[in-house]
Design a protein that fits this description.
128 residues, mainly beta, Jelly Rolls, 6-stranded mixed beta sheet, 5-stranded mixed beta sheet, 34% strand, globular
């Protein structure tokens, strides 16, 4: 079988379609605020100081499988707060995810049965 150079790679448009959104200003947070729990995709915290973000619980059944990535481009201990027990990160009664004060920290979440299942973390994100 012949080798075709540059074949099979995703274009940026295809990546955005797979990940649910572009990294436009609607998905970047310069200030503290609420993350839309019904829109899958990537969200980036760009606030210069500590951001206090909120994320509502997903709706069981309707939102199952929806994925959200929340990352930081600033060296601050940002927080993401959910209703009590919504994060499933292997620790009981998780309400708050606290990012380390390092740019590049982040969490990948998947909605399932009314909870946010933590699929992966980047950096030493602490759940309490």
């Amino acid at each position: 079988m012949p080798y075709f150079r540059n074949q099979g790679a995703y274009t940026q448009d295809e990546q955005n379609a797979l990940l649910g959104n572009q990294l436009d200003t609607a998905h970047q947070f310069l200030v503290s605020g609420a993350i839309d729990p019904t829109t899958p995709g990537r969200y980036v915290i760009t606030k210069a100081g500590v951001a206090a973000m909120t994320l509502a619980a997903p709706v069981a059944g309707r939102d199952d499988g929806l994925e959200i990535y929340i990352g930081s481009t600033t060296a601050n201990a940002h927080t993401v707060t959910c209703p009590a027990g919504t994060f499933q990160a292997g620790v009981a009664n998780n309400t708050v995810a606290t990012f380390p004060a390092q740019a590049g920290a982040g969490i990948m979440l998947m909605a399932f049965n009314g909870k946010w299942v933590v699929r992966s973390i980047v950096g030493a994100v602490v759940f309490t």
